[in-house]
Specification:
Elements lengths: L4 E2 L33 E2 L8 E8 L43 E8 L69 H6 L21 E5 L15 E5 L8 H4 L4 E2 L8 H16 L4 E2 L15 H11 L8 E2 L13 H12 L8 E8 L2 H14 L5 E9 L3 H17 L6 E9 L5 E2 L2 E2 L1 H8 L2
Parallel strand pairs: 1-2, 5-6, 5-12, 6-7, 8-9, 10-11, 11-12
Antiparallel strand pairs: 3-4, 13-14
Length: about 450
């Protein structure tokens, strides 16, 4: 894994229209993929001019649609800025209170440098959070004991709080709940079910996006993109761009603002024809969903299993970290913690490493094995430290293997990181490697 020196941290925060923070900002040098997990803070002699701004937030006023939320850093030799990715949580409003509060937010004239991330930050109005420091990407999610939860039926996700450990027992106890039966038409299996509703004719390639309209240059005649997701629960305009694209909702984590809207949005998605659901984003990464395997297994059973009879469910999306307790080893522990009771049909994973197609293909094979030989979705991947030409060559190699080599026929879907200006698109056109991803053979 890689590390990088950071000089300053910039963080701003505002409420979005659906109650979740949005993060979108510019970038000074495009097409550069730093390892999104390694953040090290070191003292330097660089002077940063900081201005403090006090922002008063009224929860009852019209919220801002976007606000930058950045864990920023720079080095004296380069300045690279790439956007964070924040999911949309809800099509309906999240309850607020009538009180107001003030947030003191530092701003800086230093050019920030951050790495690609699907970072979600707290919606608390107390302070804007920033990334914690680490000497390398080796952080291990805290070991938390698993609660006793229901298997045969589950309480309504909309009325339940996040899974909270209540016992040191790792036994998953079956019970019944009339409330869950009334709120979901899904038939919940007593063990993991391989309910595959994904069509074999669906193009494997997908679009990971924040802004739906940016997908347009990638879905012209001859495009291989057939599905899309945005780390969120609602499509945020995707259907108006191309109604034929399959939108795949995600339950990003068990944070209250996600689970409070999940049941309603999941049922709406099913009514609209959803075929697949994604679950927790990088639980093996302390900066993302940050869940230990046992807690994630319990949460999956509670919040995902009720929909197993209607859609295919993806495992939590792991990183490709080689640290014990992360990456594939985390997935193995999660499968073990499920004890056959998590109704997942495929496993999701992310890959960020130097441009080496063999390393990438070996990783997806390891995920397949850890997943119990179920299908694999690579929902984020990109070579680090590569120029456009290198990225295109890398994509040509891995796409040929994933699409044409029967050895990797278990890879059901894959999505490059990601649909944004300076990445898969340049303005109103596909970028050079965006063209390779969307239209290349």
């Amino acid at each position: 894994m890689f590390t990088k020196a950071c000089l300053a941290v910039l963080a701003t925060v505002a409420l979005t229209s659906n109650g979740v923070l949005a993060a979108n900002h510019g970038h000074a040098q495009r097409h550069h993929h730093e390892n999104k997990r390694d953040i090290v803070y070191e003292s330097t002699e660089t002077v940063t001019d900081t201005t403090w701004v006090t922002v008063t937030v009224d929860p009852n006023s019209e919220p801002a649609t976007t606000a930058p939320v950045v864990a920023a850093a720079s080095t004296t030799s380069s300045s690279i800025v790439v956007p964070s990715v924040v999911p949309s949580v809800s099509a309906s409003s999240i309850p607020t209170t009538s009180s107001t509060s003030s947030i003191v937010i530092p701003t800086t004239t230093a050019i920030p440098s951050v790495s690609p991330t699907t970072l979600l930050t707290s919606t608390s109005t107390s302070a804007a959070p920033v990334a914690s420091s680490a000497s390398s990407y080796s952080s291990v999610a805290p070991i938390v004991s698993v609660p006793v939860v229901s298997i045969a039926a589950f309480s309504s996700p909309a009325s339940s709080s996040a899974v909270t450990p209540t016992t040191s027992s790792t036994t998953l106890v079956a019970s019944t709940s009339s409330a869950a039966a009334a709120s979901s038409s899904a038939v919940v299996p007593n063990r993991a079910a391989d309910v595959s509703t994904s069509s074999s004719s669906t193009n494997k390639r997908g679009a990971a996006y924040n802004t739906a309209s940016l997908i347009s240059p990638l879905i012209g005649s001859g495009s291989h993109i057939g599905w899309a997701y945005n780390w969120g629960q609602v499509d945020d305009g995707l259907s108006s761009v191309d109604s034929s694209l399959e939108f795949v909702p995600m339950l990003w984590s068990t944070r209250e603002d996600f689970i409070s809207t999940w049941e309603s949005n999941a049922q709406t998605a099913i009514s609209n024809g959803a075929k697949n659901f994604l679950s927790f984003n990088e639980p093996d990464n302390a900066g993302q969903a940050n869940m230990d395997p046992a807690t994630a297994a319990s949460a999956f059973i509670q919040y995902m299993n009720p929909y197993a009879g209607s859609v295919s469910l993806g495992s939590p999306a792991i990183t490709n970290s080689g640290t014990d307790g992360e990456g594939v080893s985390w997935l193995k522990e999660w499968v073990s913690s499920c004890g056959g009771s998590c109704a997942y049909s495929f496993c999701a994973a992310h890959w960020y490493s130097p441009a080496d197609s063999s390393d990438f293909l070996n990783f997806v094979s390891d995920v397949y094995e850890a997943c119990g030989n179920k299908p694999v979705w690579i929902t984020e991947f990109a070579p680090t430290g590569a120029d456009d030409s290198t990225i295109s060559s890398f994509l040509e190699e891995v796409q040929d293997a994933l699409d044409n080599d029967s050895t990797y026929s278990f890879v059901e879907r894959y999505a490059y990181f990601y649909v944004a200006d300076g990445y898969l698109v340049d303005g109103s056109s596909a970028s050079s490697y965006g063209n390779t991803f969307a239209y290349g053979s």
